# Entry
Amino acid sequence: MEKLQAAIERARERRQAEAPKKAGRVYRGPAVLDPGLWDALPRLGTPPRTLLRNRVFVDNKTREATYFDKLRTKILQQCRDHGWKRVLITSATAGCGKTTTSSNLAASFARQRDRRILVHELDMRRPEMARIFGHKASAGIADVLDGTAAFEDIAVRFADNVILSMNQGPHQNPSQILLRDSTPAILDEIEGRYRPDVTIVDSPPLLATDDTQSILKFVDCALIVAAAEKTTTSEIDNVEREIAEQTNVLGIVLNRCNYMDDDYGYSYDYPG
Ligand SMILES: Nc1ncnc2c1ncn2[C@@H]1O[C@H](COP(=O)(O)OP(=O)(O)OP(=O)(O)O)[C@@H](O)[C@H]1O
Ligand SMILES: [Mg+2]
# Structure
């Protein structure tokens, strides 16, 4: 475990020594947000017990919610300082907690009403978010990127200021979709209209498929989720290097620190 923390510390020092790889993002589209666009999206009415069962913490008095609120604040600070708007959530291998983190960030932003946030589930192989939020639909964000559905028809609001675009099941050709030039163009167009302060992008594990390599090209920065007792120091080094070749590393979240003196086991590491 000390080794993992040492790897995270080394990664932090490397990041501090480097200049940002990508400049801030400027939205194209109408100069003024049309609030009617947000109002027109259907509201999710997920029962709190479903969220809790799926480890999404909506009660702001819980210790777990406080962890994610701190993470939200760190992300907002980094994005504001660098002009970043699109944040990838990734990990080395499967099951480290990316979707749990993305979903809890949605819940945390719902507690901060003065910021608008979009969450895209770009894991088209093992999507989990629709199950976590108890949402059933006939299409998802993969279909929007594939040109067979409209964003307005698949996007839902978790809160006034939080939009989720999820997938209902595995898609047939995620690699092809993610390699198309039209994919970042569609995401740009959506952000140009809905004007979120931050877009969170959930993704498959970086070392398992090519999908996340493709996604790295069109995000401003990436947050690495590492699982204590599971992620190895060399995996952290590899993931950090692969991300740094294409975009900025925002930080590393250490998940599942069950031996720590808290119930949930999250700790964070950020540059600066
Ligand atoms: N801190 C934690 N403590 C206990 N269980 C956790 C924790 N974080 C996540 N989990 C559980 O671990 C499982 C995997 O989490 P999650 O789906 O978020 O991982 P993932 O990185 O998105 O996986 P995949 O690579 O398959 O997309 C889920 O059942 C989730 O509820
Ligand atoms: Mg996942």
Q: What stands out?
A: The radius of gyration is 17 Å. DSSP finds twelve helices and eight strands in the chain. The first strand starts at residue 86 and ends at 90. The pocket of adenosine-5'-triphosphate (ligand 1) is lined by residues 55, 91, 94-100, 123, 126, 128, 205, 255-256, 264-265 (CB under 6 Å).
